[in-house]
Amino acid sequence: MYAVPSVDDVVAVARELGFHLSPDEAVLYRKFLLEQLSQLDAFVQARLPEPKPPMVSAARTPGSRPTPDEDPLNAWTWKCRIEGAAGGVLAGKTVSFKDHIAVAGMPMSFGSFALEGFIPDFDATVVTRVLEAGGTIIGKNVMNGLSGGFGTGGAIGDYGRPLNPHNREHVTGGSSSGSGAAVANGEVDISFGGDQGGSIRIPAAFCGIIGHKPTFGLVSHFGIGFGSDQSIDYTGPMTRTVEDAAAALQATAGHDPYDPRSTRDVPTRMDVLARIGDGVAGLRIGVLQEGFDDAEPDVRELVLAAADVLAKTGANVSKVSIPAHHAIRAAQAALSGEGALAIFQTGFFGAFTRTYYPAPLIAAINTLWASHADVLAPRTKLSLITAELSRRNYHGRVYAKAQNVRPAYIKAYDAVLADVDVLAMPTCIMTAPRNHRPGSYLEAVEDNLLSASRGGSRNTQPFNYTGHPALALPVGKSSAGLPVSMQLVGRFFDDPLLMRVAYAYQQKVDWKKIIGVRA
Questions:
Q1: In 14, 192, 284, 376, which residue has its Cα 20 to 30 A from 309's Cα atom?
Q2: In this predicted structure, what is the pLDDT of residue 165?
Q3: Is 337 left (phi over 0), alpha (psi -120 to 50) or beta?
Q4: Which of 96, 112, 175, 485 is flagged as catalytic?
């Protein structure tokens, strides 16, 4: 049932929209509003058919929240067991999902206590495809979410801090924080994270595992939400081995009619495993000089040493330069703020696309925003305030320009990728920072606001904006025993080539030593 507006309500709502109604006009408007609201109420309550996306393995047990003994790194929000098909490229593999990915029958919190108890009634496409490929789903992972999180340190957020298995006094990175910890600790073979500026690759780097951000649109984002601009939002696998990452990509990649990101360029499927062992002889790898700016010495040395390994394996390694690499961050910042505001105002999962809209999930998030917006993380609040002021000052020009200049930045990378096959650089210019424990609430707020400016996303964020595939590959440990990661970036839909290069490196090094966690 809807709330019946008074004349004063009509005047107030109109004023918020920039309209000015006289009392007499408001009486007339109210007459027609009541008729239209009645029609909307009848429509929303009508028992009309709403075909849902396909679901595999519909018979599911409820699962449970793990105890501290069952979850020593605080990496899990939920444990379950959903068996997939008897065969497939993921047969025998366990799989988990960051808690912004819908799994029917399993709680979904987006990292916020305010949504605790919400249970989706549909599966994200990546969930369906994992089950079809034989994967066994074993749970959902803690994330930096709507209410903040501890992947980057600090003390604002729900569900606590996932612990980095290499050194529990250091952060995991975010926002796929629990996924990074669980995979690194061997608790799950594959976890699908989410990446809006590095949120797969940064925790992969800090936790010493593989993290893949696919080409834009290659892996469906249907049933996944984070509240950021949809043109910079991705999901992809996090694993301990390149083979598992390649298998996860092969299982889930391909065009999805439910996802507006899935353009005509996206292939129906992608064979990632067929040539993974072909080696790198003759491949051209460009070491991006700008990617090393301000890098910690251990990071610089270990990434360059990894490039040398590839050179000794037959690759042609050379230095390349892309001056636009740093400038691109301003464009993405301009885009992501107003994009998030548009989602905030329009409704979770946006609008205007002919697809399936998960009404209960949209209503749950919209209710949260309408009545519990104070629980949003300080960084999110700052971004929304900045975006609102941007719209008031520039009336949409900032967002339009951020979208319109994208091809120029893409061209800057593509021009170099015409001469080399793969770019290489540090994933993060530093190792995992030590966890900071603020002494007061205001200090915690400031810490949360500062977390985006510490340089962790300097090399990851550009490729959310351009859409190029990017893969984080562990290449050793710093003198302090913390993982160091190299990022490989390729041409659009050359994701299998990145896996091939990563696999060639994995085969030439002591991989167990590189990914091993301390006792």
A1: 192
A2: 97
A3: alpha
A4: 175
The verdict on whether 98 is a catalytic residue reads: yes
Give the global pTM. 0.94
CB-based contacts of 407: which residues, under 8 Å, 6+ apart? none
Question: What is the gyration radius of the CA atoms in the chain, in angstroms?
Answer: 23
Catalytic pick from 79, 93, 96, 98?
98
Residue 176: active-site member: no
- Terminal alpha carbon distance of the chain: 58
Decide if domain 76-249+280-515 falls under CATH 3.30.450.80.
Answer: no
Statement: residue 398 has pLDDT above 80: yes
Instruction: Check residue 292 and give left, alpha or beta (phi > 0: left; psi -120 to 50: alpha).
Output: alpha
- For residue 207, give both structure tokens: 């936790």
For CA atoms 311, 491, 464, 192, the dihedral sign is negative
H/E stretch holding 237 reads strand 234-239
Q: At 519, is the pLDDT very low, low, confident or very high (cuts 50, 70, 90)?
A: very low
Q: Which of 147, 176, 199, 390 is catalytic?
A: 199
- Report which of 378, 424, 388 is spatially closest to residue 283, judged by C-alpha positions: 424
Domain extents in the chain: 7-43, 76-249+280-515
Query: Across all residues in the chain, what is the average pLDDT?
Result: 93
Catalytic-residue membership of 175:
yes
Paired tokens of 371 = 């009545």
The two beta strands, 422-426 and 483-490, are antiparallel
The 10s digit of each residue's pLDDT in 95-140 is 999 999 999 999 999 999 989 889 999 999 999 999 999 999 999 9
pLDDT digits (tens, 9 = 90+) for 268-294: 999 999 999 999 999 999 999 999 999
